[in-house]
Amino acid sequence: MILRSLCQIRSYYSKSSISKLRNIGIIAHIDAGKTTTTERMLFYSGKTKRIGNVDQGDTITDFLSQERERGITIQSAVISFNWQKDFKINLIDTPGHADFTFEVIRSLKVLDGCVTILDAVAGVEAQTEKVWKQSVGIPKICFINKMDRTGAGYSRTVKELIVKMNTRVLLINIPIFSYDKETREPIFEGVLDVVNKKVLKWSREDPNKIDVTDVPESSPFFEQLSRGRESLVETLGETDEQLIEYFLEEAEGDYMNISAKLLNESIRKATIENYATPVLCGASFRNIGVQPLLDAVVNYLPSPIEARFPNTNETALVTYDKDAGAIINKNRNLCVALAFKVITDPIRGLMTFIRVYSGTLNSGNTVLNSTTGHKFKIGKLVVMHANVAEEVKSLKAGEIGVLTGSTVLDNVKTGDTIITHNIKKDGLRSFHKQKELKLQINPINIPPPVVSASIEPKTLGNKKSMETVLQTLVREDPSLQVSVDDETGQTLLSGMGQLHLEIARDRLLNDLNAEVDVGKVVVSYKETIGKNSDLHKRETELGYKLELKIDPLYEMPKEVKDDEVWHYLSTDNNYLIMENHETLQDSKEWPFQISRDMVVNALISSSMVALQKGRKFSSLPLHSCAIRIKGNWWLPLEATSPSEFLALSRSLILEAFNDFREEDFFVLEPIMNMSISVPQQDMGNVLQDLTGGRKANVLSIEDEHTLSSGDSPNIVFQKIAEQQYLPPDPTLKNANLSDNTHSVKVIKARVPLKEVVSYMSKLRSLTQGRGNYHMEYHGMERVTADRLAAILEEI
């Protein structure tokens, strides 16, 4: 794939208003056509000279060797391009496989809008539902792809979108078909543009050629256009009084008389307010419908000054300026950015991807990592075009770029907040207010790992290099975790699923050239407690006074007490709860040599160490435990180190654990939510396999395109779906989906992960290769008595 020249790339970064910037992501289920659509966007924007193909392995955004070999997106890729001359789009193409959920989570953190791609044949799939819920609050447009396939259902998919995603829809365009003269099979050839009252037909021979025609009353498409506009205006009119007023007075009650400009303004408002979702359609592989999708991105999705500022640890006053972006606490010189991704490039070294929210970040600036308190000087700033870097002097509010330079090493990790001065190279001293220097964007949540594999150096001489490459791996992907068993010395690498660890193994061996042996993938088990400990109290000679107890944490409380502060200790649902915490607040006088942060960090450290190993099944970390600590928090004036504080808390934690008997500890295992699609004729065999040896709890059996969501169906949106105007689905009439051979059932079940680690081969055997499944983490549950002995042997 060939990018335009560097001079042309730089033209994309010419000065433009922040209102013309769009930070968007593409989200979808695996194989819905995310990367195929992205490649067409790049081609039609002029970013690339030819269209990349997933099957041929020459795409821009999927540039890793593993991505090209497997034909899937593994890591999110950032690329920038222009549309309609003066709009700039920063696009992040995200993975669709559930094992790479964290890649999606951290991308969503920095996006202002999303394009959701749906497969017109498969409809709304499980991973799409999951990511839609994760992206709550982010405005979206929807693109129904693969309209050229047999069994594609535009209207059916729109209905599923309304009911499963609980959203109103705005039909921006509607598919149109011609018919084969001999077979009368429908052939998808373009769209009916409801807003602009045009028919758009794409040439099969020339991907750049579109035939655009008007829709007179004599046109066979006029009725669909009229009804589509009526539906559009009625949905928008529920919240847009100006539109209704114009319709009744200026348009004289005729839906066809409302201008495209007025409709676009109303659609944009409804989208940004998350009142409704614009829906478009096409067939990306056949180059149909991509240009209208790009128009929708710039017309309907928000700019950075229209999007919500992310949540912070402080109550920050945020206003917006058309040039400066977000202005925090009325300080126009404050630059705030979020690090959302770290990678190690073989040529450029460590690269930290950031999103700037306010102000301007200049190369060479001294910055503060407000998450860690470390100051460091940044080197070059670059913007990425997939794997091509372009150096820039600064990044302005709303822009996405990369920090480089040796000083970045170990100073920034995923989720850290960067603060600096807009103008001064070392202007941190200008921010004398504690509130500004402590401002942090809320961190990126890391989902818990559910599988592990042992990692061993080939020789003792390879041990240090193994530790180094594992640090690199975890820095790049924090959803991977490395742990070492104190007794056996065995190193474990844990991740989100079998494919996740396979990719990590490939990266270790092929990209990082690690001299290691990787064991087979095994399930990650945990240990928990079944009752509360007693309350333990102690006061030292120096005057340190603490009270401590340990409780099981079955569920989070709806409200936290005013005098409590909860500190999340790990991905294992463990918390440190500090009671009587008022004296540790910034507003209170603090005369001691030991800082507040040192006290808190000492207690967090001792708690995390104590929970790394259980007491009955010693190799297992503890899960769902709450360590409650209460103190007067008044320390000896002469104390300069928290070491005695640390020793006291560790001692009390040990005493509390000694309260428990062996029968008070339990083994937990990961339970997965599974959605299994199988031909109806094979359903009996699949159910027997699930409920027999795999100990599955079957929750429901549904038709593939049933109009219900995984949760209880929302009656309001079911009614909206029934009332929504939808055109006919001619592609379904000849799809022959009524018999058992083609009818697909979806089995929803909850299954212990141990029983389905290598399930795909068995499912293919039971369904002659026609079955498929999606699996995601549900939570940890106690291992049943009948399976405990076998699992303990495995541990």
UniProtKB/TrEMBL annotation:
User: PROSITE patterns, alphabetically?
Assistant: G_TR_1 (PS00301), G_TR_2 (PS51722)
Q: List the Pfam families hit by this protein, alphabetically.
A: EF-G_D2 (PF22042), EFG_C (PF00679), EFG_III (PF14492), GTP_EFTU (PF00009)
Per UniProt, which keywords does this protein have?
A: GTP-binding, Mitochondrion, Nucleotide-binding, Protein biosynthesis
Q: Name one GO molecular function term.
A: GTPase activity
Protein name per its UniProtKB record:
Ribosome-releasing factor 2, mitochondrial
InterPro entries noted in UniProt: EF-G-like_DII, EFG2, EFG_II, EFG_III, EFG_III/V, EFG_V, EFG_V-like, G_TR_CS
Q: Which organism is it from?
A: Lachancea fermentati (Zygosaccharomyces fermentati)
Q: NCBIfam families under this entry?
A: small_GTP
Role of this protein: Mitochondrial GTPase that mediates the disassembly of ribosomes from messenger RNA at the termination of mitochondrial protein biosynthesis. Not involved in the GTP-dependent ribosomal translocation step during translation elongation.
Gene3D superfamilies the record matches: 3.30.70.240, Elongation Factor G (Translational Gtpase), domain 3, P-loop containing nucleotide triphosphate hydrolases, Translation factors
Q: Which domain of life is it from?
A: Eukaryota
